[in-house]
Amino acid sequence: MKKTFLTLFAAFVLSACAGGSHATMPGIPGADAVSTAANRWNVKTLANGWSGPFAIAFDGAGNAFVTDDDQNALFEVPRGGTIRKIATGLSNPTSVAADAVGDAFVSYDAGVREFLTDGTSRKISIPCKNAAIAGSKTGTFFLDACRTLYKLLPSGKLTRIRKAPLAGTLAVDGSGNFYISDLYSTLKIRPNGKASYLTRSIGGRIAADTSGNVYAGEYNAGLGTLYVVNPNGNVRALRSNLGMIEGVGIDPTGNAYVTSIGRSKVYRVSPRGTEAPFGSSAPFMVAIDAQSNLYVAD
């Protein structure tokens, strides 16, 4: 079995390193940390031996929840605590979200299940398998199931918003606007349910910042370009030649983090488009906690 890592990357500024030296990173065989005058990667391996870590989400306290689609399981990675397996038997868990108090929602073949902090769980019935889930800071969650958008309230009530012309990745910005994209376009749904296209030309893997800018990475076998689309729909290419982009995350300062499975790298792209890559065996999904620590399922 291929050895798999869930790795925590903490990016921060250090003093200048002459020559932009490279340093081998502990716990990641063959991986290099790229040091420049402005940045350096500090890497910590949280866990290994997993066969298929897939989706990652955080609760309000910074605890991470990770799905493993090979083990059909959900894990919790507490801040400073011991990793524990919360549930098994979740056939093909493809999406996860968590609320402020630590309840986790997982989408899998049988629907959506909520895991409560008291150790109990409840099933939330949806009309089809494998809904995509995205959560907001207000405790409201959005689901894309069978090209239909739903709002999931903390009580477990599921409310239909509207039919969706797209089926792809989801994101929520700081104002509660909800975004859904396919390979070629991105739809914006406001909290009142009104929907309009943010752009009809850019889609792919998306993430949204607190100001309503959407970052979209091309999910194809081409060169791979990371775009930023502002709230008015204006599109700007931040960086090209990133390979096949699988995951995108944004930190509070506007740096984008991109996993490229084609290049076996994780890239940090600044608002100016400057990239700082390092090697990784097979990076997949990416998530960023409140302290700007970057989690990558690898």
Helix/strand layout:
Elements: E1 4-12, E2 22-24, E3 32-34, E4 40-50, E5 53-58, E6 64-68, E7 73-77, E8 84-87, E9 95-98, E10 104-108, E11 111-115, E12 121-124, E13 132-135, E14 141-145, E15 148-152, E16 158-163, E17 169-172, E18 178-181, E19 186-189, E20 195-199, E21 205-208, E22 214-217, E23 226-229, E24 235-239, E25 245-250, E26 256-260, E27 265-269, E28 275-279, E29 286-288, E30 293-297
Antiparallel strand pairs: 1-4, 1-30, 2-3, 5-6, 6-7, 7-8, 9-10, 10-11, 11-12, 13-14, 14-15, 15-16, 17-18, 18-19, 19-20, 21-22, 22-23, 23-24, 25-26, 26-27, 27-28, 29-30
Provide an overview of this structure.
The chain is mainly beta. Helices cover 0% and strands 49% of the residues. The chain is built from no helices and 30 strands. The strands form eight sheets. Strands 4-1-30-29 form a four-stranded antiparallel sheet, with no helix packed on it. The radius of gyration is 18 Å and the shape is globular.
